[in-house]
Amino acid sequence: MKRKKFFKLTPLLIAVTFACSTLLTACTLTKPTQKTTKTKTTVAKKEKPLPKDPNPTNIPVLMYHSIAYEKGNDLRIPQKIFREQMDIIKHDGFTPITLDELYSHFNDEVKLPPKPIVITLDDGYKDNYENALPVLKEFGFKATVFVITCQTDDSTDYMTSKQLKEMQANGIDIECHTVTHPHLKDLSYDKQLVELRDSKAKLEKMLNKKINYIAYPYGSYNDDTVKLVQNLGYKMAFTTNEGQANKTQGMFTLDRMYISNANDVAYFQRQINGEIK
Length: 277
Ligand SMILES: [Zn+2]
What we know:
TIM Barrel, eight-stranded parallel sheet, binds zinc ion, NODB_dom, Glyco_hydro/deAcase_b/a-brl
């Protein structure tokens, strides 16, 4: 069992590292922005508060990247497979939730819908707009995209600011994945600060909302990273450590589950149901 898992996971992690680094192109850092972002005011709805959940549970946070086919690249999930996976999520009774809902649950122990699940997509590939959005709309599912901000409006492989705004208008949450997608743990404190601060500021200005969540590129972080994200006002941060998210992992080092095209749909079903240990 252990041996099988090793064989399953090791090539996947290599694939994440390799594919991420080959898909990226070089970018330059943006200048720090001094502007503060206006927060949208919304009319408070009269809603009954959800009952408190005394037993916060493990919650699967799925980690996707590109939704497109590429031979030999397990990081990319073809749209057909993505739709089959969304269908399993629906038929197994899961409810996709936002990161705000996950945060409330972890912090206030607010009760979530039955079988909550979080769908995240890293990097902000253009195919998320072309191939993932139509499927997510079809199922009425909530999802989060973690964006590399230096790629926005600078590369044909990544979503433009216009597309990001359209994703947001369709209920897809846009959050942060640094400016240039570095291995954060290899950077000095000051360089990490620029990566974590400028990406947040750029997205806040572009999308006119607060950016509260971040995914660490390659799952790379150290003590400085955790200190910085807290000081910069992020509320949760995600790694690539394999597993379901639980607040006992720490709000700035939460686990996710890597979805690879090397595995079949039956494996995906066992994965989200917590049957892969
Ligand atoms: Zn990434």
